[in-house]
Design brief:
Elements: E1 2-7, H1 17-20, E2 34-40, E3 43-47, H2 53-57, H3 59-63, H4 65-71, H5 81-87, E4 95-99, H6 105-108, E5 118-122, H7 123-130, E6 150-154, E7 159-161, E8 164-169, E9 177-181, E10 190-195, E11 200-203, H8 222-231, H9 235-252, E12 256-259, H10 264-275, E13 288-289
Parallel strand pairs: 3-4, 4-5, 5-6, 11-12
Antiparallel strand pairs: 1-2, 1-13, 2-3, 7-8, 8-9, 9-10, 10-11
Amino acid sequence: MRVHHLNCGTMRPLGGRLIDGRPGLLRRATMVCHCLLLETDTGLVLVETGMGTPAAVDRNAWLGAGFVRQSNPVADPAQTAIAQVRALGFDPMDVRDIVLTHLDLDHAGGLIDFPWARVHVHAEELRAFTEPRADERGRYRRIQFAHGPQWTSYADTGEPWFGFDAVRQLDGLPPEILLVPLAGHTRGHAGVAVDTGHGWLLNAGDSFFFHGQVSADPHCPPGLRWFEGHMETVKRARLDNHRRLRQLVQEHGGEVTVFAAHDETEFLRLSAGADRSFAPDSRKTSRSSG
C-alpha cells in the first residue's frame, strides 16, 4: 500500500514555543492537519479531510469566528485535500472512502469536497454529533455536514491490537486499515492504523497533541497542554490513552509509528522519511511512502 502524507490545513496561533515547543515566544506557532491518502487495490482512501475548500473561501462562515481568532488557519486552496489529490495526478472521484478519527471541524471540514465517498466513523462519535450532550452542543459545525455524508459507523467491538481493545476492520476496505478506539478528546474519538507493508502507521488524531507526550520523558508545551485539557470530553480516558500510547511507542516503536494530527514536527519527519523511500524519478510527491 502506498501512503501519501498531506497537510490539509496549516494553523498559526499566537504563543510561539508555548504551543509548538520551538524557540521564540513573540511569534506565531505552526500546527498542521496531518492527513493520509492511501492507494489501495479498490481505490483511494482518505484518512481525515482537513478543513475543506470552503475554509479557504470564507473562514468565519465555515469554521466559526472563534476558531479563526484562536487558530488563525491559513486560507490556502492548495492545501485542501481535494487540491492535493489532483496535484498528485489522481481523479478525486477515485476517493471512495474516508476514515475519520472524529468530527471536529478541522478533521471533517473537507467531507463537502467528496460527497460521493463513504465516511467511516466510530458509532459513538456519530451519536455525539446527532444526539449531543449539553457540553457537546457547540462542538460540531453542522454546516459542514449539511450535504448529508454517507455514514458507515462502527460499534465499540473488535479484536486486540498491540494492547488496544475493540480494534476492527472497516467494511469494504482492505484489512490493512483499522479503527482503534481512543476516546477522550471526544467520546467517540478513534485512531486509524494502516499497515504499510513496512510497519504500521497510527494516526492518533487528537488523542495527544505533541510528540513529546509519548516519549519516555513525557512533556508538552504549557499552552498546548492547557488547550488539550480545555477541549477534552472524557479526562480519565484521555490520560489513559497517553499512557497506553507511550507504552506502545516504548515497546513496539520498531513496528508502529504513532503521530498526532497537529504536530508539525512529526509531519515533517514522516514526510522526509517518505521522500527517502523513493527514487526521484519514480515518485509523484515528496510526501509518499509505502
